[in-house]
Structure formats: C-alpha cells, structure tokens
Amino acid sequence: MLKFAPLVGFAMVTASIDERRFRRRFDEFSEIGATENGGVNRPSLSDENKEARDTLIEWFRDAGLTVRIDEMGNIFGRRSGMDSDADPVVFGSHIDSQYNGGRYDGVIGVLGGLEVVEALNDADETTERPLEVVAWSNEEGVRFQPDMLGSGVFCDIFDLDYAYEREDKDGDTFGEELERIGYKGDEPCEAHDIHCYFEMHVEQGPFLEREDLPVAAVEGVFGFSWMNVTFEGQANHAGPTPMNMRHDAFVATADVTDSVRRITATEGTDLVGTVGSVDVWPNAINVIPERVEFTVDFRSYDDEVVDAAVERIRNEIAHAAEREGLEYEFEEIMRIDADPFDQSCIDTVVDAAETVGCEYTRLVSGAGHDANYLNKIAPTSMIFVPSVDGISHRESEYTEWEDVVTGTEVLLEAVRSKATV
Ligand code: HGY
Ligand code: MN
Ligand code: MN
C-alpha cells in the first residue's frame, strides 16, 4: 500500500503489513500439530513443538534475522538497526500450545512480529534501534509447570536448574526434553538490555467482541497463584464398605472445588478461580478413590484478593481432609503479582492505534503472558485483538483475520515509534 511522504510530495514506500503473506504463513504454521477439530496440539518440547520451532527459525533466517537460541530454548531473531549499540525493541510471544488448544494463542504475536520485520524489509526501512522478535519457551505451563518458564528464567524469576528439573506427568524433565529436541542453546538465558517489550495476543476473553472493538492497549495483568493439592485416603470396595468407614479422596476434592466457587463469589469482584487438572487414583468405577492430585488457579488484579483467596482455600483443604480422615499435601507452585504495564508503552500502543486509524480501548489481562515477566525488567505493554465468543484454550479459538492484521499494524507502528533513538 503506497503512502505519500508529507514532506517531499513524492511516493515513498513505507512499511505495511502484507496480509496475504502473513495469512499463508499462519495457515502453514497451523498445519503443524493440527487437530481434527481445527486446533493445534503442540505442547512444550513435543515433537510438534520442535517442528514449529524449526519452521520458525527457517522463516526468521529467510527474513534476514540473526537467530539466537538460549539455554532455555528461547528463540530470538535480531534485525540490525542504524545504531547497533542501542538497546533493542523486543516483541514476540510463544508458539507452544495447550493440549488441543487454539491456533492463535501466542502464535499471532510471534508470526505478527515476523511480519513486522518483513514489512520493514519490503520498505527497505532501517530502524535506529535493533529489533528482536522472540518466541519464549514453555509459556503455557500445561506440560511443565509453572507457565512462562522461558521468559521467567530470562527475567531471573526462576533459576536455570529449577527450570531444567521441572517434570511432566511421565517423569520427563524440561532439561532432558529440551536436549532431546535439540533446542538447549548455548547462549546464556539472562536478560540483556532491552529498550522495551511489546506482545500482541488474542484477548482470550469476551470484552473486545462485546464492545465490537478491534484492538486494546493492555494496561496491566492479573496476579495469580497456582497450587497443587494431594489428598491421600483409602481405596476400598465401593460395595460392602459402609459410608461411615470411608476415606474418600474425591469427596474432599469435590468439597474444595465447591469452596473455590464460594470464595470467588465473596472475595472480590474480579477474582476468578479454577480447579483445572484432576488426577484420580485408581480411577475405577467400583473402587473408593484413594488418592487425588488436583490444581487450583486463583487470579485477580488485586494481590490482596489473591492472598485472601489462597489463605481461605488452604483452610478449606485442611477442613476437608479432617472431615474425611485424609492426609494432604499443599504446594503453591507459582505466585506472580498483578502488575501495571509501563505508561509510556501503553501510550505508544494508543498512539499506534490512532496512527492506524482503528478504534481501540484499554484492558487489563486476566491471562498470564510472558509480558508479565518482561514487565519486571523493561518497559512493557501488550496489544489485544478480539477472541470470537471470548473462547481460548480450546480448538475452536478463533479471531477474524482482519483483526489480526489490524493488531499487527498497531504492533508495527508501536515498534517503529519506539525504535527511534
Ligand atoms: O495461564 C495463563 O494465563 C497462560 O495461558 N499461561
Ligand atoms: Mn498465550
Ligand atoms: Mn495460553
């Protein structure tokens, strides 16, 4: 799309998103680990995740980016700037997915970042600052908890050994799997100077669609707590065992799950709580459950609300164990505070939306993102685009392509604006 330079009055090609090229890439990428129902299954460090990484690196190199892989498998694609000593503008997201998740979550932030680079290449536009597009490892945290592990080590939230020792349900460790797929890079996983960080992402909620808006400047992210709970009771025959002789681990789990709902109804207007993963043993129709391992996820934009919810659920767990005569273990596996993003980056996203000429609003994110951690070491903000029916973490996750393109145009303008020294 030709735009006219206001000063000299002749056509000057300025960078613009090539939506067909971007769409082709997105469709090709969506074929990797594609599921029958239109989603993707590319969990962290799986063979499908490796294939996606390999493809991304090929595209990064084709776009002239210098590729760097660090000890956590974070992938950086660097584009030189006129001032090679200047701190880079970094932008990206993640390409690992939920088990049978959506095609857009994370991916549009990485492929959108690549498209920003391609648009600048097409226009032969060199920014003053270097640019870095990044794909962070293990953002989803479903195979290896906690989530945002790659960006967490990079931002010195977690140390490398802790990350390498994280185990999946089969007992494979993050470090072993990273080695197995060939992405245990040599580069130290530690923060270098970053001028600022942007992340474009699907909203994963209903707000933008409900307001019929294509873009949001994200002003901050919820804090959240992830907890692991194990109840140990007694397996026994479901028939002859009298009810007053049972120590049923699942009954206690159900009580705690019910408490999560009661706590979210009373502890704070934006508090959300989820029991998402439940493993029952021996999980047989005619055996009283002996052992249940489950997770609790609480989130709010108010840290005190999350603290109060964690405190209350700990008490509920102890009472449920006592009522049913069970042993229990409780572990908070991750706690991240709510954080406002950097005002100047938020303003840059707003200015970028105005430059693009799209309507926009401001939102706070209920989902966690790598931006949570980048925000602790560099000025950060995010750009949201709508999720149809507010759906995410599901194969039917969908965003209208024109909204993805609009969000990417805003990302281009925001990056351009901050890439000027
Ligand atoms: O849990 C989250 O919010 C993110 O998808 N890891
Ligand atoms: Mn995501
Ligand atoms: Mn996600």
TrEMBL record:
Residues 220-322 form the Peptidase M20 dimerisation domain. Pfam families: M20_dimer, Peptidase_M20. InterPro entries: Amidase_Cbmase, Bact_exopeptidase_dim_dom, Peptidase_M20, Peptidase_M20_dimer. GO terms for molecular function: hydrolase activity, acting on carbon-nitrogen (but not peptide) bonds, in linear amidines; N-carbamoyl-L-amino-acid hydrolase activity. The keyword RNA-binding does not apply. This is Amidase, hydantoinase/carbamoylase family. It comes from Haloterrigena turkmenica (strain ATCC 51198 / DSM 5511 / JCM 9101 / NCIMB 13204 / VKM B-1734 / 4k). Its EC number is 3.5.1.87. It is an enzyme of class 3 (hydrolase). Keywords: Hydrolase, Plasmid. PANTHER family: ALLANTOATE AMIDOHYDROLASE, ALLANTOATE DEIMINASE-RELATED.
